[in-house]
Structure to design on (156 residues):
C-alpha cells in the first residue's frame, strides 16, 4: 500500500509537524504524491536529525541560529520543503562546512553516511550525481559507520 504524507497525517496540525517530524522526513516522502514508505526512509530521517543537531549547536547546550537549513522549518507545503531540502543537500559539503569545530569529528561521519544513503554516481565527465529521491541506505551500512566513528571519537 502506498501513502503520501497527507494520507498519513490528514488531520495533523501543520505547526506540530513543522516542530516535530516534517523537517526530518525523507525527500521522496515529501516530494512524491504516492510513495511506499520503507526502512531506507527511516534511515534518511535519522541522518537529518543528526545533521540538524550538528548544525543547530555550537557545543552541548549552546544553540546557534539555524540559518543553514532554516527553510526546512518554514510553514509551506510538503513538496516545497522537500524541494528546498533537495536543493540544499545536492552539495552536502556546503552544509558540512558550516559545522562548528566541536563537531569536526562528525563531519566525515556525516559525509560517509550520506554516501551510504545516496550512492554517488558519476557522469561521463566525472561529476558526482546522486538521486536524492532514491535512498538506498541500509541499517548495516549506517551502523558500520556509526560504530567506527564512535570508536574513533571515544578512543576505544
Amino acid at each position: 500500500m502506498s501513502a503520501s504524507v497527507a494520507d498519513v497525517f490528514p488531520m495533523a496540525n501543520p505547526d506540530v509537524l513543522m516542530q516535530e517530524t516534517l523537517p526530518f522526513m525523507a525527500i521522496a516522502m515529501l516530494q512524491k504524491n504516492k510513495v511506499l514508505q520503507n526502512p531506507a526512509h527511516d534511515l534518511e530521517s535519522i541522518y537529518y536529525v543528526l545533521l540538524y543537531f550538528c548544525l543547530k549547536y555550537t557545543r552541548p547546550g549552546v544553540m546557534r541560529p539555524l540559518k543553514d537549513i532554516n527553510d526546512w522549518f518554514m510553514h509551506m507545503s510538503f513538496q516545497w520543503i522537500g524541494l528546498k531540502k533537495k536543493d540544499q543537500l545536492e552539495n552536502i559539503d556546503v552544509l558540512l562546512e558550516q559545522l562548528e569545530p566541536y563537531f569536526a569529528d562528525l563531519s566525515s561521519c556525516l559525509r560517509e553516511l550520506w554516501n551510504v544513503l545516496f550512492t554517488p554516481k558519476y557522469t561521463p565527465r566525472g561529476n558526482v550525481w546522486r538521486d536524492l529521491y532514491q535512498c538506498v541506505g541500509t541499517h548495516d551500512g549506517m551502523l558500520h559507520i556509526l560504530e567506527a566513528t564512535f570508536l574513533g571519537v571515544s578512543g576505544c
In short: The chain has one domain: 5-154. The helical segments are 5-8, 14-20, 27-31, 39-56, 78-89, 92-96, 104-117, 139-154. DSSP finds eight helices and four strands in the chain.
